[in-house]
């Protein structure tokens, strides 16, 4: 682990996280030597992180209105695009100086929230940009009751293709819950983690030109849970399955090349438990899957821990196990750059071990590179051109009552960590 003092920058005040993670409320991306942080109050702060010494220096700040939180951010067209979780579910594009270029409210298509409860707000779940297109997946969740009084989940969701001026070139609408997208010049892959309605495909690959589906895939399991994440490769895709807790390598067209168990149901002290594989990153040299919290097959509480919970698992191009390593807690997203992964470790809500709070760096082939310890929970990360940045948030665990950490940005050179 890295014990050296890492440069940080203050991000202001934020209510501390609690024992159970409350979903994403911060985001960070790297572009042209700047780290752009989307904060829990919806504002953007840009920091110069191009130097190897001293704390990141703030260059500009953009203040927004309402009560949003920025949950996604990607570089685009010399600036940055960000997505909110808010009553408006806004997608905004800013230039390199922070000035607003264009904005779009996804509630126009998703509808207004059923209530002003956080998880019922329109949510920009994922953003990615390729060339002169920015792609966004947004959703809104609501609860419904059928004629028999049963509580039902319902989603409204849209995948958008935006041009540089904010024009919507096409959109793709379903009643599934998109969680992640990946794209290249020809395809957009959309992972749906829940499918409670008419849409019954965990993965849909769309044509970049018009948004029409090219092919679809599903783990074929019972229930609403389907796919946690997707990574495109030149000749197919790699997906993490929420349906059967496995990882899959798919050829173009959705044919399965291999399947690897990741955190499948396992008996631990008489309790059968599993963990969802929430993230995947893949290159031509292999793939890395990241698993999440332990859950029991019966009920919600358990003293058991799945042996592969909160774990990074590296596999070869043929699906052979290469390495595995802990990630400390629930990771809300990944920072990636070629073969590098930056994994933010937030709450392990069952064990609540503050010693595990960290940013962990991995290589697709070789595994762990190093660890940046943090007092609070690490909730967002990005890596590019040898620089890693991470957002730390303060946390108070209910059975401890002590506030740990602060709302701040960490910046470190990869070579520094490895020294």
TrEMBL record:
Stretches for region Disordered: 1-26, 298-319
SUPFAM superfamilies found in the cross-reference section: Quinoprotein alcohol dehydrogenase-like
SMART domains: PQQ
Source species, domain of life: Archaea
Signal peptide extent: none
Biased composition (Basic and acidic residues): 298-309
Protein name in UniProt: Tup1 like transcriptional repressor
Organism for this UniProt entry: Haloarcula vallismortis ATCC 29715
Lineage, broadest ranks: Archaea, Methanobacteriati, Methanobacteriota, Stenosarchaea group, Halobacteria
């Amino acid at each position: 682990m890295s014990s050296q003092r890492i440069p940080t920058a203050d991000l202001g005040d934020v209510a501390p996280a609690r024992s159970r993670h409350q979903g994403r409320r911060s985001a960070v991306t790297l572009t042209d030597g700047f780290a752009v942080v989307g904060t829990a109050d919806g504002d953007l702060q840009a920091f110069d992180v191009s130097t190897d010494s001293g704390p990141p220096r703030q260059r500009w700040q953009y203040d927004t209105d309402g009560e949003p939180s920025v949950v996604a951010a990607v570089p685009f067209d010399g600036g940055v695009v960000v997505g909110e979780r808010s009553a408006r579910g806004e997608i905004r594009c800013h230039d390199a100086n922070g000035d607003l270029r264009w904005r779009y409210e996804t509630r126009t298509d998703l509808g207004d929230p059923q209530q002003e409860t956080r998880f019922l707000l329109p949510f920009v779940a994922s953003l990615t940009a390729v060339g002169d297109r920015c792609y966004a997946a947004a959703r809104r969740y609501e609860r419904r009751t059928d004629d028999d009084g049963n509580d039902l989940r319902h989603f409204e969701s849209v995948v958008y293709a935006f041009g540089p001026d904010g024009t919507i070139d096409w959109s793709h609408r379903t009643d599934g819950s998109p969680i992640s997208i990946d794209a290249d010049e020809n395809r957009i892959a959309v992972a749906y983690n829940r499918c409670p309605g008419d849409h019954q495909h965990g993965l849909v690959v769309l044509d970049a030109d018009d948004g029409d589906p090219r092919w679809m895939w599903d783990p074929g399991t019972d229930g609403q849970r389907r796919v946690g994440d997707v990574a495109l490769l030149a000749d197919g895709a790699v997906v993490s399955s929420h349906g059967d807790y496995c990882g899959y390598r798919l050829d173009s067209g959705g044919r399965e090349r291999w399947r690897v168990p990741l955190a499948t149901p396992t008996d631990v002290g008489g309790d059968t438990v599993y963990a969802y594989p929430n993230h995947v990153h893949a290159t031509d040299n292999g793939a890395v899957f990241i698993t999440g919290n332990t859950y029991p097959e019966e009920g919600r509480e358990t003293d058991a821990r799945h042996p592969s919970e909160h774990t990074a698992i590296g596999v070869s191009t043929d699906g052979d196990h290469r390495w595995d390593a802990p990630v400390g807690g629930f990771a809300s997203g990944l920072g990636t750059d070629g073969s590098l992964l930056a994994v933010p470790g937030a709450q392990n809500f069952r064990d609540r071990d503050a010693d595990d709070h960290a940013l962990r760096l991995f290589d697709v082939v070789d595994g762990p590179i190093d660890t940046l310890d943090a007092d609070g929970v690490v909730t967002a990360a990005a890596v590019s051109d040898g620089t890693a940045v991470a957002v730390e948030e303060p946390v108070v665990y209910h059975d401890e009552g002590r506030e740990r950490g602060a709302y701040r940005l960490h910046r470190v050179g990869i070579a520094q960590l490895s020294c």
